[in-house]
């Protein structure tokens, strides 16, 4: 398993070195990140989901992952509101930070290198992109744009504004309809999707040079959310998979490892860079 992580670490380290030296210029990291989010990962997710039977997407493993995610999401909302006294939009960002899995930019590269199979991580991405991401964006939008006209129209257009959501929905639809895409269509999509993994890892490495200054409250907030992310959520997913769905051994490992693929941005830097606006997933 360790050998599967070596390519991930190597490409990420190259990205860190490039960001540290500045050889690619100051705008390389956001450009690579946008390419991965807008083109690379949507292409890879679409191909994976369009060739995965719908029955394999909706299995007990995804159910255990989903229950664990929603439980921790709720705990993050509660903690952010009662302990850290955040405004509603910031509560949504904190809850997302505590529970949301980086299933695309980090989860897919890890799944490809370590597991050799993207079925589970793609199913996790579908759940997040089609259900959790809209929920988070609605919570943010209801606070930031309270009383603004056209709010529900923006909600309705959400799948078309987010390429990962749109690609995931399209892939599930193709699979459900039993369509088989011609090679002339698949090959260009596969080529772009193949570039998404290295671009995402390289951009991740470059982003590790960024530093955010936090006050005492920010440090406490970060520690609490990290504890939910790296400890509570994997343990909860394991417990649900083991004792609710009756799986044991290595079958539980993807459900427990997936929550560890945390988002790259901290809650503080996410709020600073987006102002809690409704387009934050585009920077993920």
Notes on the protein architecture:
The protein starts with a helix and ends in a 10-residue tail after the last helix. It is 74% helix and 0% strand. The protein is globular, with a radius of gyration of 19 Å. It has helices at 2-21, 28-50, 54-57, 60-82, 88-99, 107-115, 119-144, 151-156, 158-161, 163-177, 183-207, 216-244, 253-257, 267-274.
Number of strands: 0
Order of helices and strands: HHHHHHHHHHHHHH
The biggest sheet, with number of strands, parallel, antiparallel or mixed sense and barrel status, is: none
Q: What's the CATH topology name?
A: Na+/H+ antiporter like fold
Provide the low-confidence segments as ranges. Answer: 264-284
Indicate the overall shape: globular
Q: What's the number of structural domains? A: 1
Radius of gyration: 19 Å
Broad CATH class: Mainly Alpha
How many distinct helices? 14
Mean pLDDT: 79
Would you tell me the structural class of the helices and strands? mainly alpha
What fraction of the residues are assigned to beta strands by DSSP?
under 5%
In the CATH hierarchy, what is the architecture at level 2?
A: Up-down Bundle
Helix residue percentage:
over 70%
Rounded to the nearest angstrom, the distance between the terminal CA atoms is 27 Å
């Amino acid at each position: 398993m360790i050998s599967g992580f070596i390519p991930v670490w190597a490409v990420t380290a190259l990205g860190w070195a490039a960001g540290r030296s500045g050889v690619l210029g100051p705008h390389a990291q956001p450009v690579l990140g946008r390419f991965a989010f807008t083109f690379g990962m949507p292409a890879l997710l679409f191909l994976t989901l369009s060739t995965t039977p719908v029955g394999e997407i909706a299995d007990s493993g995804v159910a255990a992952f989903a229950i664990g995610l929603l439980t921790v999401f709720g705990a993050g909302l509660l903690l952010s509101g009662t302990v850290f006294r955040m405004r509603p939009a910031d509560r949504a960002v904190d809850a997302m930070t505590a529970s949301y899995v980086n299933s695309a930019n980090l989860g897919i590269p890890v799944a490809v290198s370590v597991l050799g199979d993207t079925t589970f991580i793609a199913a996790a991405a579908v759940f997040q992109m089609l259900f959790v991401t809209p929920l988070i964006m609605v919570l943010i939008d209801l606070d930031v744009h309270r009383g603004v006209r056209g709010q529900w129209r923006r909600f309705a257009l959400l799948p078309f504004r987010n390429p990962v959501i749109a690609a995931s929905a399209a892939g599930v639809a193709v699979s459900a309809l039993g369509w088989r895409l011609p090679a002339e269509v698949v090959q260009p999509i596969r080529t772009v999707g193949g570039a998404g993994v290295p671009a995402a890892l390289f951009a991740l490495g470059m982003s590790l040079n960024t530093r955010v200054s936090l006050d005492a409250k920010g440090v406490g907030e970060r520690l609490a959310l990290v504890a939910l992310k790296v400890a509570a959520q994997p343990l909860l997913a394991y417990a649900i998979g083991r004792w609710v769905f009756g799986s044991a051994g290595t079958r539980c490992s993807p459900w427990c490892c997936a929550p560890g693929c945390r988002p790259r941005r901290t809650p503080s830097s996410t709020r600073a860079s987006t102002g809690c606006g409704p387009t934050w997933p585009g920077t993920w």
